[in-house]
Design goal:
Helices cover about 70% and strands about 0% of the residues. It has helices at about 10-20, 25-35, 45-55, 60-70, 70-80, 90-95, 100-110, 120-125, 130-150, 155-165, 175-185, 190-205, 210-225, 225-245. Helix 11 runs antiparallel to helix 12 and helix 12 runs antiparallel to helix 13. The termini are far apart.
Length: about 240
């Protein structure tokens, strides 16, 4: 629980010491092979971070301090223990500037930013950034919103498909993968958005950009595939049946 007495024993110093103890050189090397490189990193595995976050509990003030250490493992943990309802747009702007690899970007968006009030605003805004990982943040947020936000109207996703079409020519690896990710997640949300996402992908397929064509081919394989189509048609039938009652 946030603000519980159990949190009082945890300090930044104690947590950093625990992260250092839990990390391994083997994990650091493994992270680097997957493109996760940071100036300060201990190599703590995700299951151990999950367990530590549970021990610490929610504590927004402590999360802010952990992020400020600049340690990769501490930054991921910061997103896990911070409280979404206390996240401001200003905090998001400060943190996005520290995204220096896909893990800090995706982890923070997944555990924290997707639940913040400013999530949609930042998703649209960050897609215009020049920095690779800040720009990825916009598309990662959209990808997470596509299955985390149960109340957003289709109109928001249809608008974001236009952003995807606009930015699909970015050849940078971590941007194009996030653009593809957002496109696929939007297209799996419901039948209407599936049709719209497939239409977007087919237009991208005709572009000269190699990145756009790769995004299109990969997205179409999943969005037109049997598994996705069966699920969406089943979901649509259930909705139609419910409407007849």
């Amino acid at each position: 629980m946030a603000g519980s007495s159990a949190n009082t024993e945890w300090t930044v110093g104690r947590i950093v010491a625990e992260l250092r103890r839990l990390g391994t050189k083997h994990n650091v090397e493994g992270m680097a092979r997957y493109g996760i490189r940071a100036k300060k990193v201990f190599g703590v595995s995700k299951p151990k971070l999950d367990a530590l976050a549970k021990r610490i509990g929610k504590n927004h003030a402590l999360g802010l301090k952990l992020w400020a250490t600049g340690i990769q493992d501490a930054k991921i943990l910061a997103g896990m223990i911070s409280e979404p309802e206390k996240v401001t747009g200003a905090q998001m702007e400060l943190w996005v500037r520290d995204f220096d690899n896909w893990d800090s970007c995706d982890g923070t968006c997944c555990h924290l930013f997707v639940f913040a009030d400013a999530a949609w605003e930042k998703a649209f805004g960050w897609t215009k950034r020049k920095d690779e990982f800040q720009k990825r943040g916009g598309f990662a947020l959209a990808a997470y919103l596509a299955y985390r936000d149960r109340t957003a109207a289709d109109a928001k996703y249809l608008r974001f498909l236009k952003v995807i079409e606009r930015e699909a020519g970015d050849e940078r690896n971590f941007v194009r993968k996030a653009v593809n990710w957002a496109l696929r997640n939007i297209g799996k949300r419901n039948f209407r958005l599936n049709r719209a996402a497939i239409g977007t992908a087919k237009r991208l397929r005709e572009k000269e950009s190699r990145a756009a064509r790769w995004i299109a081919a990969d997205a179409l394989r999943e969005l037109e595939g049997e598994a996705v189509q069966a699920r969406l048609h089943g979901k649509r039938k259930m909705s139609d049946d419910a409407g007849k009652r």
